[in-house]
Amino acid sequence: MTEQLPTDKTEQLPPGLQLEKVDDRIMTLNVGPQHPGSGHMRIIVKIDGDYIVDADPDPGYVHRGEEKMAEVRNYLLNIPHLERPVIHDSCNILYPYVLGVEDIVGIEVPERAKYVRVIAAELNRCVYIQYWLAIYGIFLGHSTMFMWPAGDRELLIDLLEKMTGARVTHSYFIPGGVRNDIPANFEDVCLRQVNYFEKRIKEYADIFYDNPILKARTEDTGVLSAQDAIRLGTTGSVLRASGIDYDVRVKEPYDVYEELDVHTNVLKDGDSYARSKIPWLDMLESCNIIRQALEKMPKSGSVRTKLKPNPKGVGNNEVYKRVESGRGSAGMHIISNGKPEPYRVKISPGSFRNLIALPYLLKGEKLGNMPAVYWSLNYWPVEADR
Amino acid sequence: MSSTNSQTNTAKEDNKEAPPKPAAEKPAPPKPEETLPAFEKELTDRIVNQFSGDAEVGYDKENRTRINVKKEKILDVAKFIKDQTPFDHAESVSGVDFPEDKEIEVVYHLGSYTDNRYSKQILALSTRAPREEIPNPGNDSTKLPSLRDVFYSVEFHERECFEMFGVYFDGHPDNRRLLLPEDWADIPPLRKDFRNKGR
Do B64 and A355 touch (CB under 8 A)? Predict the structure, then answer.
């Protein structure tokens, strides 16, 4: 007994405001944007009983027009606002922009600055993953897994504060190096804190990753095969959890990653459990990278090549740079036309690329498994919206 | 005396060493320039020769190549790339507005996960659509064939390009808005004639 609307009335409505026909079996459920379990986005889920038959992600609630803003500011003024899409990983999202501008402006980076950048980027990756892990824990009902990463994250935030002067929004990388040198006793403090941090996160295995309740909830849910991971163009932890060995730090090393021994973590299963375990393994790997970088870093020297005020594009007029961020490859396509402002800046972050997997993975899952699948994608809504 | 001797000695040594040094050093820097773009050049030549007249090489740089294609042939070129080269996914799709040329450019950045030799490579496949002064997204001549059936991963990127530049992708199954609100009533915001408020 569904009441039909007059057809001529629905046809007059503009696109996007169409009324849906009522179905007595399929129910439409809006998860978000106010729901805390979705982040700043809406997932329109169609359910049949307890099973999801269709899922349609609706991002854009935090779209701030970063790409448009970048066209009216010069290369240096772009730095603080381009890291806003993901402030918890601000060094890594800024990295491709800085590498690209160095190509466009034609400037060399001192050796010591490259090591400082790698250390800051790896610390920041851990800070981001800890934040993500806290959210993943709380949405699976594991409140200890919220408290522990949120607390241990402070260790590295303190380190980054010593380096950059800011806790979260660092604006530390600039074309030609980093903004300021690290403090005098930084190496010892960093080594001590990172060693302690590594000891702490190894304990997460006992409480979280080897926990039978977590395994029961996440294993064999939202399975993404290797073929589909490639076809959908996923990246980062989603791709590596499906058995594809691809990490930009290894495949196309930037700065000094070539001189460091970076191990790529790959798991074969492609389910939510594997996707949630890869970032944790990445944190352990980051600790290794930081120790290597601290050892190999030149103990003194410049950390910054001075730029001319208002630099103009003189080198390449078009670059596409990418780095491995906490959520996968972050790419920037920068076009210069010889003016102090870039002609076009296109950001292609990992979150936006992984979003396409969400409707694919949710089809056929139980509604109760939705948080386990959704958060395992390592998705950051603000970054995808830009 | 000893000092002068040592100086002359060193000078002699320098003279002896000086000729081989540049000879040993000089071939080293051009080598990567010669060998590295060779791989890229071979790749782009293979694609461009297949479509002579409709496709041209934009640039061959280290790990980065670019091919400009006429919009009528973009689907054929994409199919050829998908079938005959290891490129298997799209990393990014950028729209670029050129009001002076009355054209909007769409650049697909393609990458490869499957072939290790190509894992560094990014192929920029670009095409241009006509641009109208007063845009009417979806109902004007700013249209391109969609590559979604060839590279599935472009689906959301093309949706974003449609709302931000007004480029309608023919054959795309889901040409809805993605990031902008449903009631957005202004021109596509990443076009150059859209002004930021207060600027």
Answer: no
